[in-house]
Specification:
heterodimer; A: 295 residues; mainly alpha; 8 helices; B: 445 residues; four-stranded antiparallel sheet; 2 helices; globular; Serine/threonine-protein phosphatase 2A 55 kDa regulatory subunit B (chain B); WD40_repeat_dom_sf (chain B)
Chain lengths: 295, 445
């Protein structure tokens, strides 16, 4: 756990330095750092859960079937266990880390890889993986299976995504870019055969093609809450502030707390060999992560 | 170790040619690429400051037999300048990422140089004559009064001091959203490709405002990105075939012909689960891929190994060479000092019997594929006296260290050899160590 925490600290600072270095964000470097951050974070949380500090989520489905916890692969159907505590608080269902609220631990915000579907592309360790890799012997079994998580994009909007913030403008080609023509050869998809069909040649799409990216690469605005009961428009009551909004539609519902949003994340794939369990308080680390995310 | 590699009963001797001799290395002087041309007559280097320096081998003369074909500076020019992308508020580095020579077809030399965003075609030509005797202007270039011209004369070419001039003939810009990592000239000598992190474009040398996108691995949702392109190269003989490597340690052999659209070959070695760690993904990333001169093999370099693949066998490499396996236990430290992200290159010798790659402490390693012997040599000023013989080095991985060995903890990780080049037909190598260029030759007894 200590090793994982140290790696997390170092990696987050490296990610921050990546953003400010000359020449812009390097996509390859950012990807490598992000993968390591996810792996270290998962190891850290697993170690804390195993040490009894943070009780892990109830994974009834996986426990009964005896399936080895592993990452969720795009398109795979994995039963999602119940998370009553998360739903009661109104937070987006995510890993059950009730101890986090008490100790002040803040999991590392989702930086890359996680999608709304819950897919965690890499690294594949076990289960229906593409690589067929198996967990290293002695690796503590993480009770937090990715299938238990429904990662939200709120964290990504809050902290930004270094992959989307990299030097390329993923929505529009550079101004004055020549017309690129494909001679009919589709973009050769990477990786091993997967359940999803390979993506076609992907030219830069107009902004409207990706509505989620429309707000901007680092949208720190609070996520839109679910629509609540309708309320009448017009002048606010005395003593009440009136929030200006784009439309005079239904008012806002309860907004989940920041901590609940941060906790509602998918853990990364478990890494290799076991690490040592010890380290400084997680609250300080959580502060570091928040500081980097705000840059 | 007296016997050399490559079938020669010789040893490696030093030509103490240093590109720069400043005691402290300037960041702009750090060599970022080295490349021999197709005949080996010219050697081009690019640095982080955007400059290209071309060395030319001297003709061997009977009067000075000891100066057997030494390399001297032939031309120096500023290839790329720092730019600023105002649209994205990003600075574009002038660092030369790659240089590739075109085959010589006339008296001039042509090469491609690229930074992160722009590829340029340069013409390097000599001028040793100048015209004299113009009618309308005098020798200073000033125009003459036409009314004062009474005699008509024919301009003649008179010899002058040799002048080498480099002129940009083509600029291929605005086609890459991400950072260009590779360029490769096709065997048809009419096209070339440029590869960035997510796309590969095919260019015609005559057309600068259009390119064909032949590979695109950018996902529709960037959050699903799992790998990037790290290197790409055309087959040396088949103009329709090229290969590209990825950060996941995979290699794709692609065929651009219409009938072979869906028949790309996928090379990947299964991962050893016992070696898995936090850093497995990082060290498995391929930093360089090279076709053999014969076109039958592919060589790849990741952080710890060099692998040789047969194009006809995809499931595993036919040869694996450990470059510096003693660093496997130091990965955490190497990660903290960013050395784990270093991108080492690898090269074949002319006969594809020996491969070479760099390491730390200014070490570079050669592996003889036939005899399975390997040697570690060091590029340093102290060990590179004129005509000195390079002494093989050895790293002590544990136990009692011998007198001439160096321990792993004593390695200087700031001295790294990332870029090397091998003469296409002779045993002459160029090794770039930070801001110094070393040229060594195999001395035949």
């Amino acid at each position: 756990m200590e090793e994982a925490q140290r790696l997390l600290t170092v990696s987050v600072w490296k990610l921050y330095r990546c953003r400010v270095r000359r020449g812009g964000l390097r996509l390859h470097r950012s990807l490598q750092l992000s993968l390591l951050v996810r792996a270290a974070r998962h190891r850290y949380l697993s170690a804390r859960a195993a040490a009894g500090i943070l009780p892990g989520p109830e994974i009834t489905g996986a426990a009964e079937s005896g399936a080895t916890p592993g990452p969720e692969i795009t398109g795979a159907t994995i039963p999602v266990p119940e998370l009553p505590a998360a739903t009661e608080s109104g937070a987006t269902p995510g890993p059950e880390i009730t101890g986090a609220a008490e100790s002040g631990a803040i999991p590392v915000p989702e930086i890359t890889g996680a999608t709304e579907s819950g897919a965690i592309p890499v690294p594949e360790i076990t289960g229906p993986t593409e690589s067929g890799a198996t967990p290293a012997p002695g690796d503590p079994q993480c009770p937090n299976t990715p299938s238990a998580d429904r990662p939200s994009n709120r964290t990504e909007r809050k902290w930004g995504n270094p992959l989307r913030d990299c030097t390329g403008d993923h929505r529009n080609p550079p101004s004055g870019a020549p017309r690129s023509e494909s001679p009919g050869v589709p973009g050769i998809p990477p990786g091993r055969p997967r359940e999803d069909p390979p993506s076609p040649v992907n030219r830069d799409l107009p902004p409207t093609a990706d509505p989620r990216s429309a707000p901007g690469p680092t949208n720190r605005d609070p996520p839109p809450a679910s629509p609540g009961p309708p309320r009448s428009t017009g002048a606010p009551r005395a003593g009440q502030k009136r929030r200006s909004c784009g439309s005079a539609g239904p008012g806002r519902g309860p907004v989940p707390s920041k901590r609940a949003r941060l906790e509602a994340e998918a853990p990364p794939v478990p890494p290799g060999p076991p690490g040592r369990c010890s380290g400084p308080p997680a609250a300080a680390f959580g502060f570091l992560v928040r500081a980097v995310g705000a840059c | 170790m007296g016997a050399g590699l490559g079938g020669h009963k010789g040893v490696w001797g030093a030509w103490p040619w240093c590109l720069r001799t400043q005691p402290c290395s300037q960041a702009a002087d750090i060599i970022s690429t080295v490349e021999f041309n197709h005949t080996g007559e010219l050697l081009a280097t690019g640095d982080k400051g955007g400059r290209v320096v071309i060395f030319q081998r001297e003709q061997e003369s009977k009067n000075q037999p000891h100066r057997r074909g030494e390399y001297n500076v032939y031309s120096t020019f500023q290839s790329h300048e720092p730019e600023f992308d105002y649209l994205k508020s990003l600075e574009i580095e002038e660092k030369i990422n790659k240089i590739r020579w075109l085959p010589q077809q006339n008296a001039a030399y042509f090469l491609l140089s690229t930074n992160d965003k722009t590829v340029k075609l340069w013409k390097v030509s000599e001028r040793d004559k100048r015209p004299e005797g113009y009618n309308l202007k005098d020798e200073d270039g000033r125009l003459r009064d036409p009314s004062m011209i009474t005699v008509l004369r024919v301009p003649v070419l008179r010899p002058m001091d040799l002048m080498v001039e480099a002129t940009p003939r083509r600029v291929f810009a605005n086609a890459h959203t991400y950072h260009i990592n590779s360029i490769s000239v096709n065997s048809d000598y009419e096209t070339y490709m440029s590869a960035d992190d997510l796309r590969i474009n095919l260019w015609n040398f005559e057309i600068t405002n259009q390119s064909f996108n032949i590979v695109d691995i950018k996902p529709a949702n960037m959050e699903e990105l799992t790998e990037v392109i790290t290197a790409a190269e055309f087959h040396p003989h088949h103009c329709n075939t090229f290969v590209y490597s990825s950060s996941k340690g995979t290699i794709r052999l692609c065929d651009m012909r219409a009938a072979a659209l869906h028949s790309s070959h996928f090379f990947e070695e299964p991962e050893d689960p016992s070696n898995r760690s936090f850093f497995s993904e990082i060290i498995s990333s391929i930093s360089d891929v090279k076709f053999s001169h014969s076109g039958r093999y592919i060589m790849t370099r990741d952080y710890l190994t060099v692998k040789v693949w047969d194009l006809n066998m995809e499931n595993r490499p036919i040869e694996t060479y450990q470059v510096h396996d003693y660093l496997r236990s130091k990965l955490c430290s190497l990660y903290e000092n960013d050395c784990i992200f270093d991108k080492f290159e690898c090269v074949w010798n002319g006969s594809d019997s020996v491969i070479m790659t760099g390491s730390y402490n200014n070490f570079f390693r050669m592996f003889d594929r036939n005899t399975k012997r390997d040697v570690t040599l060091e590029a340093s000023r102290e060990n590179s006296k004129p005509r000195a013989i390079l002494k093989p080095r050895k790293v002590c991985v544990g136990g009692k260290r011998r007198k001439d060995e160096i321990s792993v903890d004593s390695l200087d990780f700031s001295k790294k050899i990332l870029h090397t080049a091998w003469h296409p037909s002779e045993n002459i190598i160029a090794v770039a160590a930070t801001n110094n260029l070393y040229i060594f030759q195999d001395k035949v007894n």
